[in-house]
Amino acid sequence: MKPQFFVTVVPIIVVAALLTKLPSADAAPPKNLNAAVAAVEKAAEEEDDATREWTSREMARSATREIARSERGRSEKTLEALLAARKELALAKKTKGADVAAAQQQVEQKTATMKEVVERLIGDTRAANQASRELFACEDRTRDKMAAARAAESVLLQFDDPAVKEAWQMWKAKLALLLKQREKENVRYKVTAPCEDANESRVLTAMEHQLWARETIRSAGQMIEQSGGASEIAQKLAVAQTDPDKKKALQEFAREQADAKKEAEQLIASKNQAIAKTLASEYTPRTAMMGGLKPLAEKDWDYAKARHLLVRAGFGGTPQEVNKFYALGLFKAVDTLVDFRLQPAAKAALDISVPLPPDDLEKKLRNDFLTKRAAAARTTAEKNQTQKLREWWLERIVESPRPLQEKLTLFWHGHFANQQSVVRNSYTMYLQNQLFREHAAGNFRGLLYGIIHDPAMIRYLDNNKNVKGHANENLAREIMELFAMGEDQGYTEADIREAGRALTGYNFDDKTGGFRLKVQEHDPGEKTIFGKKGNWSGDDLVNLILEQPATSRFIAKRLFEFFAYQDPNKETIDHMSATLRARDYELAPMLKNLFQSEEFYSEQAMGTKIKSPVQLVAGMMRDLGVKDTTSYSALNAAVESMGQKLLEPPDVKGWRRGRSWISANRMFTRYNSSAELLQTLARQDSQTGVDVVALLEQGSCKNTEDIVNYLVKACFDRPLTSEQRKKLTASLGQFPPPAQWAKQRNQLNAKLRSLLVLMTSTPEYQMN
């Protein structure tokens, strides 16, 4: 018996929920091809029936919802008219010569109308709620039938039988006919072939579960609006009702609708939980498809790992913030950090402009002293604007709801390093900073394109002097050696020379700070780069670089070492670079894979990195919940004193991480600067010093031991010994109960800040 045909039908309006078990990648191969084909055909028919039913019920639900909404509006207007008529009747009874009978008649008419309206409101609202409930159940059935169809297809495709392949050739025409038939019936489908990869099938099933769940959430939200509005108007109608039985009926209806609203809210909560569970089912097979790192087991996710994630993929957070991430679960927590554009943008404001141009008349001043003073005014303005830029960026780092975006902006600033002292144009440095922020977790291709068009980089690496016939190789060399491929990784000196020619004419405009291609300075001739000949431009060079195997490995390793640990093994980088290549240099999927991986939470990774000055200062602010400082100049001064000056990496290789941060002199500075910030930081309430009491008020601390444990939890990534905790507890001494904190806030803050000074002066605090 030869197989006949089967299809997968997927509604274009995708939606979702979640209980079906996903197709197993480890299922034993079936023994009977005919039985497998029959199962696929049956599953396809049942899916088709379920999808038809869903289409019908969605239309019915939409219609009843609109009718119910219309009746609520009509009820509002009828109630207003009745109350107005009653008011007119009361006024007529007080006024001599008024037509009381006519006013009474109006009241009676409005009362009769209200009775009719109430009956329709109750009936139509109940009908709409019932249609919603039936739709919810139908969505679950449709979801399950779709999953069953995919599972049946996965079983069939395990056969290595020519009959299966032969059948598909015959079925293509029948699939096209089926699609045309569905279009004539106005049923919205698309017809797809089954997955030939078990992991892909599992991923798609998980995605469909999530999408159905989100559709149910959307519909349930409409039911909340529907029932909540009906309950509210019913209560108003009950107040206006004079008939006791009708009043009671309206009150019962109002309670019924309030219960329906709660029912929909509970459904939304359950679907959100279902989505979170399904994420784990999706990520493992998706990772396998891309060849990525092995995900951490859900059972191994704990508070310490949630804090590690928030510190490494951001700058830290209070225990409350860490607990929120822990409660999300590993996969949802990672999604929340990496998909940062779904979070509110930072509110930090910056007024910045291009540097003041020199006055042409300055050259004609008769006194050299005055000429220098005129130039000094511009230099001072530029210096002040650069300082504002640094403080603005620090404010974003400390306060942004998108911590990973700022962490990556800092990474790319060190990766594509250049110096304001060389560029001497804070406006173009700002534009570069925004470039890094815009493409932070986007596509690496976009970053490379941006860099070769970036005025600050062009100026820093002298590409403004790169002209036809006199090529300057600086930018070409650093793109290959430091920015994209790594030193001596798949390119020659000849490739660099030719790449320099490709970048000729890539310049910038002094007056606007924007990129400018000087066509007359560009070399349009044929060039040979990586063995390929063509009239390559700088933009072509980016594409050629991205084609090289070394590129994905180099970027994967740089990001891994920044977020996890130094010197990973080759296999680890192979997995990360495979993920990067599989998604055409999209960074977000690779970052998600990294932050979900066993490697990221390994002993080699957790608590093993020395904090950079920015991490130390910003981390302290975030861990202690400080978001009300008025003195980002103090934070910037502390960061600079520790050896990290924003917009001023030491050279084109960027900052050296690790032990370079902790020489003997720098350790002394780190301790002192941290202590000074804790004690003297200016606040918006005109007080100075960190308000530690405000942090403790969120922690339900009842005694000295609780306070020490809570602050240790807030500040340390490496565990302290019981002996260290005892010393800290003894240092703090007796502490009053929370009820007395408000009256002694300043004195208690002074004691707590002294305790924090001790804590931040420990070697353990320097690590994350």
Structure at a glance:
Among the domains are: 25-278, no CATH class; 443-547, no CATH class; 613-766, no CATH class. It contains 27 helices and six strands. It has helices at 33-94, 100-156, 162-184, 198-240, 244-290, 303-312, 319-328, 330-338, 368-399, 403-415, 420-423, 426-438, 444-452, 455-460, 474-484, 493-502, 538-546, 549-563, 570-582, 587-595, 613-623, 632-641, 664-680, 692-696, 704-715, 722-732, 745-760, and strands at 8-11, 189-192, 506-508, 515-517, 527-529, 532-534.
Helices and strands in order:
Layout: E1 8-11, H1 33-94, H2 100-156, H3 162-184, E2 189-192, H4 198-240, H5 244-290, H6 303-312, H7 319-328, H8 330-338, H9 368-399, H10 403-415, H11 420-423, H12 426-438, H13 444-452, H14 455-460, H15 474-484, H16 493-502, E3 506-508, E4 515-517, E5 527-529, E6 532-534, H17 538-546, H18 549-563, H19 570-582, H20 587-595, H21 613-623, H22 632-641, H23 664-680, H24 692-696, H25 704-715, H26 722-732, H27 745-760
Antiparallel strand pairs: 1-2, 3-4, 5-6
The largest pleated sheet is described as: 2 strands, antiparallel
What is the rounded Rg? 34 Å
Helix content: 55-70%
Mean pLDDT: 89
Separate helix tally: 27
Strand arrangement, largest sheet? 1-2
Shape: globular
Q: How far is the N terminus from the C terminus?
A: 65 Å
Runs with pLDDT <50, length 5+?
A: 1-27
* Strand element count: 6
Strand content: under 5%
Q: Which structural class matches the secondary elements? A: mainly alpha
